[in-house]
Inverse folding.
């Protein structure tokens, strides 16, 4: 593979990454706008509640089935379609700082794994001239030092 082909492939990958980042940003904006709408609705229903609910706590609460305490009828189950809509009593916190940190950590992990693989391959190489490990015949000092 030539350098030109390699640079074209890298360019394609960079464009794909940029498209995915734009999609992620639009999804985050849509999510924030929907949360903002829900929070406005919650304030209009009961303006007396001032606390906030973390996102993780809300997800945990929604994922569990909810039953009526009097008749024990299942009102909400995330796995099944339901006739009811769950609206939290308190505002929902929005956090997107963690997604940026996760994206930054992934390239660092890839670079460390590739360097360790190179070290392992280098130790397994056996020179065909002197039969020592760690180098090839082209880089063998014994062969290079002998006169022709």
């Amino acid at each position: 593979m030539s350098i030109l082909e390699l640079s074209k492939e890298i360019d394609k990958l960079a464009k794909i990454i940029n498209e995915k980042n734009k999609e992620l940003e639009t999804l985050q904006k849509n999510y924030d706008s929907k949360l903002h709408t829900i929070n406005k609705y919650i304030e209009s229903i009961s303006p007396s509640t001032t606390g906030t609910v973390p996102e993780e706590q809300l997800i945990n609460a929604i994922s569990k089935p909810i039953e009526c305490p009097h008749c024990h009828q299942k009102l909400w189950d995330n796995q099944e379609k339901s006739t009811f809509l769950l609206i939290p009593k308190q505002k929902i916190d929005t956090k997107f700082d963690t997604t940026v940190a996760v994206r930054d950590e992934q390239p660092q992990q890839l670079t460390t794994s590739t360097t360790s693989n190179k070290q392992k391959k280098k130790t397994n190489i056996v020179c065909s001239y002197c039969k020592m490990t760690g180098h090839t015949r082209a880089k063998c000092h014994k062969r290079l030092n002998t006169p022709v």
User: Anything to note?
Assistant: The mean pLDDT is 73. The longest strand covers residues 74-76.
